[in-house]
Specification:
By secondary structure, this protein is an alpha/beta fold. It has one domain (3-131): Rhodanese-like domain (Oxidized Rhodanese, domain 1). The protein is built from six helices and five strands, in the order H-H-E-H-E-H-E-H-E-H-E. It has a five-stranded parallel beta sheet with strand order 1-5-4-2-3. Helix 4 links the parallel strand 2 (53-56) and strand 3 (73-74). Helix 1 packs parallel to helix 3 (40-48).
Amino acid sequence: MSARDLSDVDAQMQAPEAILGRAAERGRQMGLRYAGAVTPAEAHRLAGTGTAAIVDVRTRLEWDQVGHVAGARLIVWPRKGGDEEIGAFLKQLEEAHDPGEALLFICRSGVRSHYAAQVAAAAGFTRSYNVLEGFEGHPGSGDGWQAAGLPWTKG
């Protein structure tokens, strides 16, 4: 078993508070402008305990054809990123979630979700986290939610 595998198994057994503390420390080390960053296994644990909600910011096509985390909410991150599009994204987020709720943003590889967490935090969602590696991971790297063998669904 690799060190990453052991870390993922460990994350599944840890208290949510410990995971959030580690996520916050990662956030400080990475200079993030939001609450922190979690691994896919940590996100699975946090969502599974009801500590946080997963917000998938990929496209509807990605959600339907590639698959998604069961129980996640799809709120598409705007590709153009203009003020109007960002405003529409935040409106959907506000309609679906309380600003004090812990939100785990996920995309394909962790890039769009980084920006979504940053924008959400700036809009008052102070408990915004990025899921590192994303749902599919980085091409050829063997990382991400699916590669970690975490549960997901398609359709």
